[in-house]
């Protein structure tokens, strides 16, 4: 079975998905839509697919599934439209910045018996997936504590920050999902500390650039998340999980793994410059999972509910910072 | 100048210090005291020093300094006695489990113009000291976030737990000191999560075995501490500090650093079995610093105030767990 | 410009090149030929190209270049035929097992002004290429000594050994090319030691499975090569180059880079299982270089002469083993 | 039992052994001799032992063993004198630069039933010893190939080179011993390449500064040695052994193991500055082995024969360079 795709949104992340879809033997990219015709045309030219409007794609009989890479504030609407149009939906995170809107949207998905997968790509990174697999294989016994370090190479422009929903909803949300993925139990309380240490402009917009979070589950499992919007040495992405029998960890990946030794010491080149180069394999594996799920009529993961759960943790973290206390997730969701 | 030492307490940590003192070219171990005569005699035999009572040492004119390695509940009394006796005092952490008693004791130190150094040995580990040095050298710019991972190889017996003052005062206290050492700014608030995941007996004694802590300074610098009372792979001791220009870290030390590769992969032996083997060099450097300070008439560091500050963080952490909120250190101290 | 390719030979390595060609935006795979029609058809189906005979391809006007992945004893003939047919030729190593035949073939390439690139894929591995780049950037000063470690995961079957030309011509030849690539000066003498330690069947065929080689250039630069036909921990591929100002090295690549720590130590998974997974990126970069050279009318490297030089080193190594002496390359070539 | 030592030679390596002896609970340093009285006095002052002449030490009844750290050309004479004087002898390598003289000397050792241990310190490095132990434990199956990398931080002055016996007898000799230690089978043939790449002054003295050696045993096991007199990044000391079941290796040790990451990459400090800091633990373990052997009336290892065997390999290597061929060790010994 070949899944016939349309791509909605031909921007930076849209290109990543176009490549993932066209490189997959069980998929075909049939059409692409974008508010900027030139962007859509560029993808159409590169991969030999058609440019169509979103309306046309909604009605296209030769489309089985859509990949939503449009701006965040259009996600929920498009999910609803394409679930109603009986297309399987892969949507970039987040579903929406408002938890209420997410709930509404997921109600439509349920009502239409739609298929929705949310793009938490890191679960599909081969190294992070191998960490999860090692846990499943019993390599570290019972999970107790997770440590997630995630730092961007450089702070985004003010314009991006404004539309981002803030660091917890935009950046930490990936780590919240990762914590849920690794802990194997839902976080019950959230404690967070947030500062502006990198760029005062971020602070002026009411956002933070440096945050630390502790998540605690009912049985007492803990995850610690450390985030910064800037790391001079590249895109820093590490996880480790401590359990009753041991520790499993995934170190940073490097674009070039050489080392030069000289009078000043031993030097390895910096890390990847961002997620597009760091997570190339993850994006391919993510789409492959979506396709395989469609082929086998199984629900793809992470689901809409996973998207909502991560967003609820983001809101709890914000509330924790504002009120200086441990916030129960139950207060939010 | 040769500093003439008496050792008070000939137990496990007393032996470590006896070795550090006798191995130092500027020091001489003159006498040792212990409630168990056999323990004192063993050290006297090994290093050719005298066995004396604490009273005798207090009056000994051939003693310049004492190293206090007796049980915790005797520390404050002995510090006061020996400051009054005009001996320089090196005391194992903690000064006391009660912050009020510590304050009282430090008042006596001040009043007698005594010299007191508190045994936070990790500051003197060559690798951790090099991290601090790198920060001082400007290698990472302005400090922003520290991550401290500290796991013991195995949980102590219930008997030890009872007298320990609990995990925050007994174990995390080292990490609180390390956080202060690394952040270069006093923590203002403490958030902590604490669980019993390793040994239910610890929970029955009202203590915890797995804790995560976030410390935040006034300017927003953050330190994250992750502790467990048990790590199957050995004594896990790591630090890293993220700053405006980069990251500096110190990995675990290993007793034997070979690697064996075979069909199942690449395997390196476990870490050190505990602090005595892991921090051998740190103990020697710590005593050397104390001796050098005496020789140059400078105040040795960490001071009694450093001991008190770490204890205050421990109390704040306990309160944070009890009340589910961010606790200001000012509430405690 | 799009380079239109035909693939000659649809076996294991043919598939690797089919993928590299079809994944390249500046290339198109037009046709495939194989003595086994089913093998050719499989590639044609997977990539949407035509099945043709070698004769047909020779005459095809819609073919600019061929990739020769047929059995070794057909390489030289095919190179000659396709140079005469004015197609650019990319040929898997070796050109031939006989140095005399190689010379003859290269004369034809020259006479026809043909374009020939030989498939020493390792030069194009991003990590090894970065080692070369670091040297070119002056990171280690003047090159002095290179160390090349190369071990296959498991010995090939007797049948393969028989047709292989022996370990020096089949396996070490890659390391001979790498040594030339790294030393930046032609080896003048070869000393080699060769044993049968892995599989006696290999010895019965007159071949070896474990060899060490020293190459020395005129100015005294040295390269040491260590080969084994079997490594239980995977495909072991490492290089390091020592120079007047420092050392540059490239460690093994790993399919999954996690680490599990437990009571028995710290374990990382084994290496790649063989060249197809280890050198995926190298194969893509190799074809990209060939295509870019055709587009810019430059000679692609490694050339036919590079192929001949590596073969001459293999013959010198064989002679060194047989005669127990340092063999001058000039005696061979 | 306490072994009473005299130290012959109070130079650089003499100080290392003085520290090793005095730090050993089962040994006592009774006396020290040196042609320069001030050098002897310095050690006497530091460790509280007597200064005596070599003649006096020879007759001293309170001396059980001597550590010979005098210039190389006195070693053989002193070994003979002290074996005759019934003192156990620990002698720094080499016994002598002339194989004939070594044979003569060992005959005296035998005739007097003397105890002689030769100072190949690297066997006692905890990491290299752990490699040997892993082999003994069967971790890599049957030994097949060893790789030994050994580079000094900087070339010694011409004056040292003149008296050194040349790089093979002075520097590579440690690696020859290590190869014998690791291979578990005597090398049968030696092939060597030697160049002057570091310092032309070394070449003018008829010596080399960059050498590569292949040793082959009767059953075909191979060891490869790579030496340089200069490494800008510190004292480079690595071994690895490949066997039928896997690989065991010991990486370089570092004085400080921190890492700093910044815009230019990840940097670790250089290696140790030389053998005194790198092999501190090895020197202590070496003397401990000597003492334990005396206490248990066993022959200490490495023996005089081990010293001779390594020297024979050095001579074979020199001959291999001179004659451009594989030299049988049997031709030498």
What does this structure look like?
4 copies of one chain form a homotetramer. Chain A has helices at 12-22, 37-47, 54-59, 72-84, 99-111, 126-136, 158-164, 167-183, 200-204, 275-278, 280-295, 304-323, 329-332, and strands at residues 3-8, 27-33, 50-51, 65-68, 88-92, 116-119, 143-151, 187-195, 210-217, 222-228, 236-243, 247-250, 258-262, 265-268, 327-328. Helices cover 41% and strands 25% of the residues of chain A. In chain A, the strands form 3 sheets. Chain A has a 7-stranded mixed sheet. In chain A, strands 3-2-1-4-5-6 form a 6-stranded parallel sheet, sandwiched between helices. The model of chain A has no long low-confidence stretch (mean pLDDT 96). Chain A has 13 helices and 15 strands. The first copy, chain A, has 333 residues and is α/β, with parallel strands linked by helices. Chain A has 2 domains: 3-114, Rossmann fold (3-Layer(aba) Sandwich); 123-281 and 310-332, Dihydrodipicolinate Reductase, domain 2 (2-Layer Sandwich), CATH 3.30.360.10. In chain A, helix 5 (99-111) runs antiparallel to helix 12. Chain A binds chain C through residues 23, 25, 46, 126-127, 130-131, 134, 139-140, 245-251, 253, 255-263, 269, and chain C through 23, 25, 46, 126-127, 130-131, 134, 139-140, 245-251, 253, 255-263, 269. Strand 12 of chain A pairs antiparallel with strand 13 of chain C.
